[in-house]
Amino acid sequence: MTAASDNEQYVELELTPELHSIFMEIKDLFSVYISSYVHVLNKFIGILRKISTLRFERSTLIKYVKKLRFYNDRLSNFEFSDPANAECSVPVESVVREISAFYLKVLETIDILNYYLTRSLQSEIVSKTLNFNLTLPDDTISRIEESYNCFIKFVQWMMESISINDELLQIEIIQFSLKCAIEDNVDLEETDNIFLTEVTPVEDIEEYETLALQWSEVLSGSISALTNQFDQSVVVWIENSEKKANK
Amino acid sequence: MTAASDNEQYVELELTPELHSIFMEIKDLFSVYISSYVHVLNKFIGILRKISTLRFERSTLIKYVKKLRFYNDRLSNFEFSDPANAECSVPVESVVREISAFYLKVLETIDILNYYLTRSLQSEIVSKTLNFNLTLPDDTISRIEESYNCFIKFVQWMMESISINDELLQIEIIQFSLKCAIEDNVDLEETDNIFLTEVTPVEDIEEYETLALQWSEVLSGSISALTNQFDQSVVVWIENSEKKANK
């Protein structure tokens, strides 16, 4: 699975100024990812104020917004140890463990939110209001899933490419995919499922930097597509709620 | 607030066989805490099968159960480094950081679940079914809150008593309590709010062991009271659903 389980030699990597700067960039991307949810949920919560049948759903969404804002505040205050100021070298492994544990806390919360938002809530809106203008379009739901998968795969890569494979840092969707693949006898060498494709351990810090930079671009593209979809949904909600008010 | 911010001398503690064994006990208590939710939610999910108006709430609860089961599996597979087998001494700080990050991931999830279960869902059940026999009694809701507060305060103690005060390991309910206290000019020396009472740094490993053992007893008592309340709720739900079936 990883270098560790193959008993390959594991070389401890040290944080470089370049990697520090890429990690800071990716931290900002996580922050934008969280903010995009806070923004779209706040808009939706505003619209739900007028729809009394959805008042309990509204309060559930407010709870999520508070939690996401709290996470985002922590991330904004957090600083990676700067190798330029450190008295001794900073192991990449300890930095990655610390930030991965936090990212996974955020992502597992977003997983439950995504389920609530794109499944239970969508069905409930249609069932209670018969108003399809308040639901999320399929394209938005696909983007929500795509971005989530992208961030999950990034965290898996960030850890496993330097042979971190801790029990407490496992990810539900990946463990679930592996379990299903084993039950269904899926050939892990031939699968298209991104959660089943193996993470190759990096050879050195330069390779880790190059790949981290590529990940930063992938995450950035994924967030742009997501916020674009969220913005479109907000426009449709507002247009429809104004039309209704003018009737 | 803590030794670190008072600039006191910080002595690095090493994991002892005694502390290792107390940490294992507390890990088992966390596991029982998670299992108690899985158990009561599964019973409730079973009862909801017959109530079609609550089918989307049922699917939301199933999502939570899966997440909690996943967390519990990780915890069951996890082993603390055993100081008896370790080649060199194990710093308590690194063990506490690792397990606290995991406990907080679980507790922040339980916080959102508690809100959904004890607020939104309770109102929704009454609104949709007018059946108060399906709701949670006030005593159960109080116990849910009490246990949550107890586990949160324990994790805060476990970290702050050895001067761990990381940004990424902050806890929403504690930060929220502090923010409100500052806004309301609450005297932090005189407050009854357990989240505002200061954690005193320990002097040595013996004191940490003694207090950890006391915490283990407090957590154990809190879980017993909670599971007792959950069991009573299940009995009432089943009795009422059988009565209804026999009508």
Automatic annotation (TrEMBL), chains A, B:
Q: In which domain of life is the source organism classified?
A: Eukaryota
Q: Where in the cell is it found?
A: Cytoplasm; Nucleus
Cross-referenced InterPro entries: RNA-bd_She2, She2_dom_sf
Per the similarity annotation, which family is this? Belongs to the SHE2 family.
What's the protein here called?
A: RNA binding protein She2 domain-containing protein
GO CC, alphabetical: cytoplasm; nucleus
Example GO biological process: mRNA transport
Q: Keywords in UniProt for this one?
A: Cytoplasm, mRNA transport, Nucleus, RNA-binding, Transport
Do the record's keywords include Nucleotide-binding?
no
Boundaries of each RNA binding protein She2 domain copy? 24-221
Record's keyword annotation contains Nucleus: yes
Query: Which gene does this sequence derive from?
Result: TPHA0G02873
Q: Name one molecular function that GO assigns to this entry.
A: RNA binding
